[in-house]
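hey m, so remember when u said the tokens were messed up on ur end? i reran from scratch. heres the input so u can diff it against urs
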Amino acid sequence: MRDLPTPEEYKDPTIKYAVFARLGPGKDGAFKDPDAFMRSWQFLKAPYCVSGYSMFILYFNRGFVFKVELRFVADTFAGVVPADNAAYCESEKPLFDLVAAVVGGPIVKREDELEIRLEKEDYIQRLSTNGRDADLSWELRGGPTL
């Protein structure tokens, strides 16, 4: 666990993270198994894309998982796939819109971000987009904050 990197958004060195799966196509444009799983999601009916830089992340605090995140990062931000490649993903907004329709709840504008936030007794579910990425996360209450 000590060998895992510390996420830059947290200043506490005891907080670590691990990327467990890439969610989009590889640099060659071929889709990996996690993307095949996503393509089976029944609510993803309209066109959307998933960049090769998108990922499934677990965050740890002293060895315990406190946050799970699906992070979809557009190639316009990550620069992983060139614009002339068929796998190029210009915007994660269509995916945000599809997930938002299933998650439900009001979309709130916060600074440069759109967000749906569901607060439960034990956790906070958050769906957000800011023009560079779309994130769907579940975070335990009482865990580390930014």
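this time it looks ok to me. The chain has a mean pLDDT of 84. if urs says something different then somethings off w ur setup not the seq
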